[in-house]
Amino acid sequence: MNILITGSSQGIGRGIAELFLKKGHNVIGIDRQKSTIDHECYTHYICDVRKIDSLPQLPEVNVLINNAGTQNEDDIDINLKALIRVTEKYGVQENIKSVLNIGSASAHTGAEFPEYCASKGGVLAYTKNVAMRVAKYGATCNSLDPGGVITPLNECVMNDPALWAEIMDETPLRRWATVEEIAEWAYFLTVTNTFCTGQSILVDGGESINYNFVWKD
Question: What are the C-alpha distances in Å from 130 to residues 17, 20, 99, 155, 184?
Answer without folding.
Answer: 23, 23, 8, 34, 22
